[in-house]
Amino acid sequence: MPSSTNQPAAMRIIGMMSGTSYDSIDAAAADISMDNGTLVLTPLGIVSEPYPEQLLGELAAQLPPAVTTMEQVCRLDTGIGQAFARLAARANTELCDGQADAVASHGQTVFHWIESGQAMGTLQIGQPAWIAEATGCTVVSDFRPRDIAAGGQGAPLVGYFDTLWLGNLPGNPVALNLGGIANITVGGQKPAAFDTGPANALIDAAVRHFSAGSANYDVDGAMAARGTVHQQLLGRFLDEPYYALPAPKTTGKELFHLPYVLKAMEGLGDIADDDVVATLTTLTARTVANAVAAAEGTEVIASGGGTLNPSLMKALRLELGTIGLQTSNDLGLDVMAKEAYAFAVLGYLTLNNLSGTVAGTTGARHPSILGSITPGNNGLPFRTQQPSTPLALRITNRETV
Hints:
Layout: E1 11-18, E2 25-35, E3 38-49, H1 53-62, H2 70-96, E4 102-115, E5 118-125, H3 128-135, E6 138-141, H4 144-149, H5 159-166, E7 173-178, E8 181-186, E9 192-198, H6 201-210, H7 222-226, H8 231-238, H9 258-265, H10 273-294, E10 299-303, H11 310-320, E11 324-327, H12 338-351, E12 372-374, E13 392-395
Helix pairs in contact: 1-2, 2-3, 6-10, 8-10, 10-11
């Protein structure tokens, strides 16, 4: 991919992500370049691995609303960093022929501190030094704190990626990610990005509880399909004050966790397990659809693990009504890799001295160059001659480059 001396050179970057569902680590590799103001993303593929069983259990046991210790945080930071490092090394070998320039690691969110609607701090762990040591690559990590320091919510950081990507589409398109938490980015003339509420977080928590840990999620949406929405329980969930807060706003498992579900069920008598899951599935669909309608969205492009749940997608289509729904697969971007690719782009921007946020998406006072940098074996791969702010994003493939 050719580049002139007045724009950043092409880079091969591995983007790494483990979301609030913490079901797996994803590593997506891409060649990224700039072509006359357009970011060109050429996906090279994705590899994923679940956390080792013991590490997963330790992580689950320490997340909110549990109480933890600094020792446990240190142990998790190391263990998660080592797990990311193993997958990064595999991605470099299998997807990049050992030629990756850098790794952009989101790490694992373990706490997102919100007070009175404002993000005060955030903690993503997974020590990047392990990744640098295993791959020899420079690592960009810890993306969210700089935006929070600038007055933003620190999330969703896919907002910049999405606004560049959505700019090629007609109308007022909305990008939707259905991870543990659901977030949307609104394109058009007034970009906005925010968390709408839970996506899989409450569904997964309920399934783990009802199955005594033998199942981690509603496989194929089967429980929701068998169940019937409990309208009184749904009404209690919908009374959550978060939904009425103005954007930009963020949330997480600090609010939406199993005790939240169990408290809402108090005094309602026996409710079948399937009915609870069906109700939570409708809750996700309803709150997403309400947010899209309020933003006057004309079409929704969904990605994330929730797109693989037929019951959730069916409920979402029903709630959206006449607003169209497709997935990022339809636009050439793997639904399970989109966030990892987005962080690869953020890493590219950071390494080329370019900001990774855009006005209106996080509520920050100004755009910021995001992240912290851990040098690789050959130092820092800065390549910019003259920074050039991208105006659009184009997804291409290796055959057309």
